[in-house]
Amino acid sequence: TNGVVFPYTPAVTISHAARYNPTVLTHSNYSSYFYEGSEIGNFTLNGEFSVQNIQEGQYLMAAIHFFRSCTKMFFGNSGARQGMPPPVVYLNGYGQYYLPNVPCIITSFSHTMPADVDYIDIPVATMVSSSAGSAIPASSGVLTRLPTMSSMSITLQPVYSRANIYDNFTLEKYAQGLLMQGAGNNIGGFL
Predict the structure, then answer these.
(1) For residue 130, is pLDDT > 70?
(2) Label partner for 37 (CA 20 to 30 A): which of 44, 77, 145, 148?
(3) Which sign, positive or negative, has the C-alpha torsion 88, 69, 123, 10?
(4) Under a CB-based contact definition with an 8 Å cutoff, are residues 103 and 159 in contact?
């Protein structure tokens, strides 16, 4: 799917804030507020995944492994990437003007396996490294027990490079909707 697609619409809450610093003036009935900056807080996607057949089970395992991988840094013998932080992911949803290819880091991931649902065995391929260093399937699959209904919670923090903000962001462009473009636009994704 070229990324993770939630099979059911996830619950999402996004908050935007403008920070003001209060200054108490001597012999005044009211405080004065001075603008400090704006920010987009982290937000959480809460989504349900069902497993009714082998394909859905394999997709769930792939999504779990993807999100686990996105919370790990490049370590050990990673070549040129050694020591790099976890990757930046891009969030798209609800059309090109709501979550328009937003660059994010995943700060936490959880998968809840409830006790009150059925579990089924799903064959998941075991992988080995090829001579070129890429992963290839080694066998048709080892059985993994998965719930027929489970939920994922992913906490994301939007991040923008300083160069992108400096070179591309203006309030005029943002207010006109010019900085909210879909996938493929390197300057889009501003929330």
Answers:
(1) no
(2) 44
(3) negative
(4) yes
Length of the chain, please? 191
**Token match 């209060």: residue?**
22
CB distance 40 to 15 below 8 Å: yes
* Rounded-to-integer distance, Cα 49 and Cα 7, Å: 6
179: amino acid identity, one letter = L
3-state secondary structure the chain: CCCCCCCCCCEEECCEEEEEEEEECCCCCCEEEEEEEEEECCEEEEEEEECCCHHHHHHHHHHHHHHHHCCCCCCCCCHHHCCCCCCCEEEEECCCCCEEEEEEEEEEEEEECCCCCCEEEEEECCEEECCCCCEEECCCCEEEEEECEEEEEEEEEECCCHHHHHHHCCHHHHHCCCCCCCCCCCCCCCC
Interval 23-62: pLDDT, tens: 988 898 999 999 999 999 999 999 999 999 999 999 999 9
Which residue's structure tokens are 């619409």? 9
Cβ neighbours of residue 2 under 8 Å, at least 6 residues apart?
Answer: none
